[in-house]
């Protein structure tokens, strides 16, 4: 986690050559001189990454002044990345204390955006924009929140306004291009990205977005440019990562598989590998022990009987986006995208391994009243995306870890498990720019082992919830589009609609890595693609073991 202050604040701090840091003029100094001194020291300690000491000074201020806005705000910045929910709480308290401070509203909105809570993010970022209309970070944050809340058309003018204020603002320009891509406006996105490259604004990110907005049949001039960038001596590891992924994507399209794999391998060696396989296995063991058939039977009658929630889940790159696009083409289905809400509910119930704590104790002791409240909280959130749709899809792939909890909270929810050839699935993860929470994908052997744990957990869910989980194999969907699509809609308890066969014409934005592919009719080139790379991936195949269909 970055320990620096959020960009919108640090930008307004006047950092001298010495240790003194002056708070922004927009934030009034604390009244008490002693508090002023302590908070200045806290800022200096934070800058030096001495976070526990900075936190302790803030708490000393709060002991005297429990609602000291700046102390609360600094604690929020300290919490980001460690405990985002706690950080949000601190930011909310600061914003409540000084509701007309645009920086407090900005940071609260950005923190809500970070955890995927888009409605409050929109509320607070809108307020920041009202308070300080030229605050580019607030305009960009609000645009991102709208885009992720399936209101991409409202994001475009905000990014454009940000660029009017600062033509060289990287986040605004790349964000505008990504929104164009989400909306399927690829030509406009390309113009925007090429201008970003010309202006030397986040060049690796711009190239990566550009090459992922289309498929190449002939070598584009961008490939030489990307390779030239990689040849520059002063290039950083992060920049190299983006350029290698972009080069690999183009070369894969062109069928130059050995060269492509060399770039993908080089990219992933630049990523930190912080995935603890032993801890991951223990968590899967704990989930299987906690959510057994007897436990689920004991929770019968819990939760909410609503049939609205539909959970499309599976490994990333397994066909979840395609599945959601097909189902949400039906007039009675709304696709809400990848929602973090269920994961946040699970975290609040302690479904994480922590030393000295009994795993899932809050779930074991959950009362029927508590289950009703949690289910209603989730449903209310779901209804923000559609107030009337009979079925609403939550397409967070890693919800496969939470099927037991979901089954308790929503005994009538539908599950669609997207499964794909194991080697193809893993390779697609390896080739993709999967971010936070997917560090298992940076190494071929680790990726294969993580896939085995996913498979083990899914077999458990299928055993204890017979008939509840529809298995949607990617290869079946490719070979028999209409037949498999009809089976999907039947599983949702709906009558067939031919619009589901024309999913690629569906209006609206697509907000995942698959956003280019799902705007095309179904194609078969991704089936058994791994054979093009067979000589380069023995660690993956060996780790998958009997799951590798060869």
TrEMBL record:
Keyword Transferase: yes
Ranges for region Disordered: 1-27
Keywords, sorted A to Z: TPR repeat, Transferase
Coiled-coil segments on the chain, per record: none
InterPro entries noted in UniProt: P-loop_NTPase (IPR027417), TPR-like_helical_dom_sf (IPR011990), TPR_rpt (IPR019734), TPST-like (IPR026634)
TPR repeat residue intervals: 102-135, 136-169
Keyword rRNA-binding: no
GO molecular function: protein-tyrosine sulfotransferase activity
Official protein name in the record: Tetratricopeptide repeat-containing protein
